[in-house]
Amino acid sequence: MHFQFSLPSSIAFAPGSSKTVGHLVLGLEVKKVLSIYDSGVKKSGIADAIAASLKAANLEITEWDSITANPTDVDIEECARLAREAQVEAIVAVGGGSAIDAGKAVAILMSNESPITQYEGINLVKTAGPPVIAIPTTAGTASEVTSFTVVTDSARKKKMVIGGQHVGARFALIDPLLTASMSPALTAETGMGALSHAIEAYLSVAASVPTDINALKAIELLTRNLPQVVVNGSDVDARTGMLLGSMLAGFAYNSAILGLAHSISHPLTVHCGLSHGIANAAVLPHVMRFNASAVSERIRNIGISMGLNVQGMPTEEAVELTISAIADLSRRIGIPTLKEAEVSREAFDVIATDALKEISTIFNPRNPKKEDVLRILENAWQ
Description:
Elements: E1 10-13, H1 21-26, E2 32-36, H2 39-44, H3 46-56, E3 60-64, H4 73-86, E4 90-95, H5 97-111, E5 121-122, E6 132-136, E7 148-153, E8 158-163, E9 171-174, H6 184-203, H7 209-231, H8 236-256, H9 260-272, H10 276-305, H11 315-332, H12 348-355, H13 370-381
Parallel strand pairs: 1-9, 2-3, 2-4, 4-6, 5-8, 6-9
Antiparallel strand pairs: 7-8
């Protein structure tokens, strides 16, 4: 047996943990802080609450609220310039994966030369930036606990994965109460994004004992709580279960990496404007069917973690029941097909070409060809 397993962040998981951010940053012996968030976080009042905690610690705050979904290299360079001018010493990133990815990317440019595009890949960031404190407001990407940031290269129309040492957040304040303001639609798509992380990490060729343990527990928590929290967003126990499941999925994929569903989802978001969660959810069952011949017993184990009665069932039936249950979950909580999401079939060729170039494809349990990806896209479009 051999494996590598690592986590970049020190984690505080508790309702109300976000209120301690001022005290935490003060303990870093810094004075100037950059706070990154998007308009939705501002509208919900979360950004103001974080700012109040920072100001109560007598910290000087520079705020940047121009985060958009799938932040681009242009966005990151602009924010990094602002941060350098303000001489910030720590970064507090508040929001979903886009805000936290942006915070990690800006930290890279605080101690390493521009442009951010030169760091695409693994372990190309040579110098640690200022500490990043990540405060998630969605149960989705788990960017707060991973050593990766995803930035869109606007010139190449490509999502870049930047990973390795000096990329992860130093601290994660994981507060389930902050996720209560998510709409049912956002809850659904981010939740399916988290589930796709757990499933693809479990099916990855780089899976190991610790990633398996975290992935299977994440699948259990996410599938048990997601239908409930979409219907009743004020259910604190369900919100806590979702955020815990998302975090554990992050623990798993940080070391096991992902698979073909993510490889397809990246060009879907860039070329077709889909969110990360919807893109993954739409193709996940079809990718699992493609992979089934290589990982049939692992798919059965996914079904067991979901609470399905697949033990002792013939393998082919167990696999189909598990995959169908995942597809049914997506439909029940309102995840659209690619057709319903208005994805043009004319884009399939470039999506398939780009998907084969993604790093996650290397970790997929079956080696896909372009025609395989095109078939998956066609099935996901129906």
